[in-house]
Every structure is written in structure tokens, then in C-alpha cells.
Amino acid sequence: MLKRLKCLFGKLEKEEIMSDLSKLGKILIVLAIITGSVTFVQAEEVNLKILAPWEAAGRVFRVGPELLQFLGTFEGIMYIEDGKGELDAAVFICPATQEINLANGQTLAHGRCMITGSDGHSVFADFTCKGVVGACEGKFKITGGEGPFEGIQGSSDMSIRSALGAMAVDAKSGSVIQAAEGLAIWPNLKYTLPSK
């Protein structure tokens, strides 16, 4: 009988000790939060306005009775309006395609971009836009990143101004276009990076 009491008493001691440790742990966590020893970091949203002069190179093809298609790349440098931020003076290249309807002057473009910051790490994005020859309005969406940009998410409206459409309209099918220039504007780029 004494052995049974010792075993029972030993079990009660262990259960009481575990219960007390659990309570002590909860109290320490609450104290750490109250005193600021533990902080919870949330992802911060960054808001930017970006301007980017660019150049395009590629080829124009006649793909229908009244339809031209440009296949090529847009390259340039992004400038953040206030000159601050990790993407200021980032270099971008966007392989893209643009269709131009000769009958009504409507245009439709889409592409993917690699934006490389001064540290050599890249952000990836895609865009779509539509409009008239010389102006294209649409959406720009960040699809990922590497290094410090890993897990980045964001988007912006996008406005493109160019002489590419006018040059393409006058080009023969298969013509190479070397020096089309324009300006891209991201008026409200918002992005977040995951907290670390």
C-alpha cells in the first residue's frame, strides 16, 4: 500500500510541476509582450511614383489585313519621383508584344519584365495595356523577386507613351525597329515584402 501511495504521490508531483511550469511560461510571455521584449513585425507597404524613359528594339510583322504585331524588348531605367528607395535607378528589360490595328488605330500590348536594382537583385513583373497608337494604359503586376526582394508582391496602374506605334505603321512586314523611344509611368506602385 505504501508503494502505491508513493507512486500516486510521485505522479501528482510531476503533474503539479508541469502545470506550474505551463502557468509560469504563459506569465513570462505576457510580461515580454507588455514590456516590449517581443515584437511582431508586419510587412510594410511601400508607395512609389516611378518614371522611366525607355528604348525599344525588335521587329514588326503584318499578321492580318489590318493588323501589325511588334515583337521585341523595352529597356530603360526607373526613376522614383523623390529619388529614394531600393528601385531608384533600377534597370529594366521587358520582352513584349504589341498589336496595332491599322483600321482603327487601337493597340494592345503585354509583356514580362526583369527589374534589377543597384545591388544586382531582381524583381519580376508582367504588364498588359491597351489604347491608341502612341499611348497605352494598363496594369503592372509584380510576380516575384530574389534576394532581399524574395516574396515581394505589388501592382500599379501603368501608362506608356511612345513613337513605336507610328514607326510600326510605316514599316514593312519583317522590318527591324532599332530606336523607338518613349516614357513609362507607374503613378501608384504599391508593394510589400514579407517580414523577416
Write the SSE topology.
Layout lengths: L1 H34 L9 E20 L2 E14 L9 E12 L4 E11 L5 E11 L2 E11 L7 E10 L1 H6 L5 E18 L4
Antiparallel strand pairs: 1-2, 1-8, 2-3, 3-4, 4-5, 5-6, 6-7, 7-8
Please describe what this structure looks like:
This protein has 196 residues and is α+β, with helices and mostly antiparallel strands. The radius of gyration is 29 Å and the shape is elongated. It has 2 domains: 1-40; 45-192, AOC barrel-like, CATH 2.40.350.10. Mean pLDDT is 81; it is low at 4-9 and 24-41. Strand 3 and strand 4 (106-116) form a beta hairpin. Strands 1-2-3-4-5-6-7-8 form an 8-stranded antiparallel β-barrel. The longest helix is centred in the first third of the chain and has 34 residues, at 2-35. It contains 2 helices and 8 strands; from the N terminus they run αβββββββαβ.
